[in-house]
Amino acid sequence: MLTKRLLLALVGSLVLAVLLVGCGGDQALAVYLEANRQRLDQPLDPLAEPVEFTVAPGTPAKAIAQNLQQAGLIEDALLFEAYVRVNGLANRLEAGTYRLSAAMTPIEIAAALQNAQAPSVPV
Fold this sequence. Notes:
- With about 120 residues, the chain is mainly α.
- The chain is about 45% helix and about 10% strand.
- It is built from five helices and two strands, in the order ααβααβα.
- The protein has helices at about 5-20, 25-35, 60-70, 75-85, 105-110; strands spanning about 50-55, 95-100.
- The longest helix is centred in the first third of the chain and has 19 residues, at about 5-20.
- About 20% of the residues are buried.
């Protein structure tokens, strides 16, 4: 038989899970962002060289964040996603090819991804 203490712990865990699900993704991201805000000002590698990074048309912010992390440009995809979504930048990230570096902060990378430039063509 379950003891009263174990039963209360199970019920408490269930209530907590329901509250977390019910608060919505954006609110959870806002909480994560606030808890990790100081990391937005820290580059992953201050000595890193720029690399080419491409965002395909229609790529959502979550996938862009994951791709940035896989490319070694940021440390935390969830933090990047939280920053752009909470600050209303997710729909401003533009498709294009960029020169980014792990020496850039996540905030600088987010700013760069809002300014796609057409490739120059020599004439």
